[in-house]
Amino acid sequence: MAVLEKLLRSKVVIWILLVLPGLWPIWPIWVRPDPSVGADPLKFILHHLGFTACVLLATVLTFTPLRMLWPKWGIAQALNRHRRLVGVAAFVYALLHLTTHVIYETGLDWSQLGHVFQVATTKPFQLVGLIAFTILLILTVTSPNAAIKALGGKRWKLLHRLVYVAAALAVYHQAAARKLFPMQVVWIFGPLLALEIARIIRERKPKPAARRDAEPAKV
Amino acid sequence: MLIRTKKDWELPESVVTSETAYRTHNRRDFLKAIGLGAAGAALASSDLLAATGGFPAKANPDFPASALKPTAEQFVTSYNNFYEFGTAKEQPKDLANRGWKTDPWTVELTGLVNKPVKLDVNDLIKQAGGIEERVYRHRCVEAWSMVVPWDGFALAKLVALADPKPEAKYLKFTSFLDPKSSPGQAADNLDYPYVEGLRIDEATNELAFIATGIYGKAMPNQNGAPLRLVTPWKYGFKGIKSIVKIEFVAAQPNNTWKAMQSSEYGFYANVNPTVDHPRWSQASERVIGEGSTFAPKRQPTLMFNGYEKQVAALYKGLDLKKNY
Predict the structure, then answer these.
(1) Which of A132, B72, B185, B189 is the most buried (most CB within 10 A)?
(2) Structural domain boundaries of chain B?
(3) For chain B, which residues lie within 8 Å of any Cβ of chain A, measuring from their own Cβ?
């Protein structure tokens, strides 16, 4: 555990963990070509990038509840050093996902660009993805320290709560991407939901210390 | 002198098809073909079974290989929607080949017909007069397309065999049900068995086809062995795979995808670039296996998938926006 904690504190390790999933499609497309992927390689890349964005978004959101539920757990502490980095990485994958979508839908015929965005804004499934992306874009732009200062801590915090809206929209977008409900949505976002529920229950329960303070006042 | 007039759906030979390796005219195949032609020829039953789709298409001068460029065979056999064997495209090629038995295979023609019959698929092929090849465009509702050289026989021949009664208005196709061999059925990912339907005039249209093979070979399991429906002017999900029963009925059958989600999938499922899917546009399509990874080939989708001349008359007066 101590080794894992040490590794997870390292920025280099986190960077590697963030970049590696993006390189995965190289394997079935070029290294060991799989015809199931090669039939429509960009679609595979498109889905893979969206999938990775969802995983990272769900993952980064678990960091805070993990620390609140187990404040003394070293791994939770280590992970919370990288919240912003992982959050920005989720945005980068969402950006690559959207870019891939545009290339895929236009087939590089840029006269189709307008049509692609017109479709995106009229289909709820695509529009929801686009809104989630826009939220992540706003949060990324306002993630540097200077932006926190400019906005003021309270407003910044309020603005960044939008990430939960983005996560909810991502759940819908990912589920609607398939003809049948994909169970992966549950694997990706289920743990986050469980942690958030545990955190809310914990926060509602008055702390033992607070109760002791309150009791003498009653007398 | 016989001057053959081309069928309307044959494209002009402006796209030259390279001589591909999928036609294997060797002696054994030839013998099998002869064996099927002469019913009395004493070929072992296993030869006949192997021949189901495996013998080369009998050259039908009316339907020569068209000028469409077939999609590479490896993509056609590894990029499959066959939910009985998994919902991901790469799953059927694996999961449909783990002991699922498609030989022997019995097909039942039943319902409002004068000649109900239950027979082995090879006998059905014999009675239908053997196999021919047709190269058709294949357009999936998911906005991708292929070109597939199918081997099989006109559905109209099967209809003639069954001799439908006047009150038969539709054909109801039913696929196999065997949860032990089908992980998708075991997981209950759709309402099984898979059901599809056609209006009887659609079924007797010259394009409607029962395929028993592709690329001159027996139908691979993942593509719907041993026989499947091919209706090239409709989205791919109409092409029910691994048929066990064809029923002639009076009322419109409730096809599986329509029953699952009627807001997205209808009974007709005609390829139509002007009627979008609720989640994406149908105006254009990705051409499988063409272009490069970062410059994928996309082309405009054609009305009725390019078969407007042959089928448009079937839908005169029908609101295609409502009857999608």
Answers:
(1) A132
(2) 27-315
(3) 72, 74-75, 77-79, 83, 87, 89-90, 93, 144, 189-190, 261, 264, 276, 278-281, 283-284, 286, 288-289, 291, 293-298
The DSSP element (H or E) to which A214 belongs, if any, is helix A208-218
pLDDT of residue B159: 98
Which element (helix H / strand E) includes A70?
Answer: none
Residue of A nearest to B263 (CA): A179
In angstroms, the CA A7 to CA A63 distance is 16
Question: Kind of pairing, strands B144-154 and B228-230?
Answer: unpaired
Q: Please tell me whether residue A7 adopts helix, strand or coil conformation.
A: helix
pLDDT at residue A208, as a whole number: 63
Eight-class DSSP state of A125: H
Query: Which of B144, B189, B278 shows the shortest C-beta gap to A123?
Result: B278
Q: Residues 6 or more apart from A52 whose CB is under 8 A from it?
A: A21, A22, A93
Q: In this structure, which topology does domain B27-315 adopt according to CATH?
A: Sulfite Oxidase; Chain A, domain 2 (3.90.420)
Q: Which of B71, B281, B288 to mutate: most A Cβ within 10 Å? A: B281
Chain segment B255-288, per-residue pLDDT in tens: 999 999 999 999 999 999 999 999 999 999 999 9
Reported as type and span, the H/E element at residue B115 is none
CB count within 10 Å of CB A1 equals 8
Contact (Cβ atoms closer than 8 angstroms) between residue A135 and residue A164: no
Selection from B142, B146, B89, B137 nearest residue B297 by Cα: B146
Contact A125 B286 (CB under 8 A): no
Torsion (CA) B148, B245, B264, A98 in degrees, nearest 10: -40
Residue spans per domain, chain A: 2-197
Confidence of residue B98 (pLDDT cuts 50, 70, 90): very high
A41 chain-B contacts, CB cut-off 8 A: 293, 296
Residue type, B256: T
Size of interface A-B (CB pairs under 8 A): 81
Distance from the Cα of residue B310 to its chain's centroid: 17
Per DSSP, helices labelled H in B129-271 are 155-162, 183-186, 200-203, 256-260
Give the closest of A40, A104, A123 to B279, CB-based. Answer: A123
| 3-class secondary-structure state, position B94 | helix
**Number of C-beta neighbours around residue B313 at 10 A:** 10
Q: What is the pLDDT along chain A (219 residues), one digit of tens a residue?
A: 789 999 999 999 999 999 999 999 999 999 999 999 999 999 999 999 999 999 999 999 999 999 999 999 999 999 999 999 999 999 999 999 999 999 999 999 999 999 999 999 999 999 999 999 999 999 999 999 999 999 999 999 999 999 999 999 999 999 999 989 999 999 999 999 999 999 999 988 876 655 555 444 444
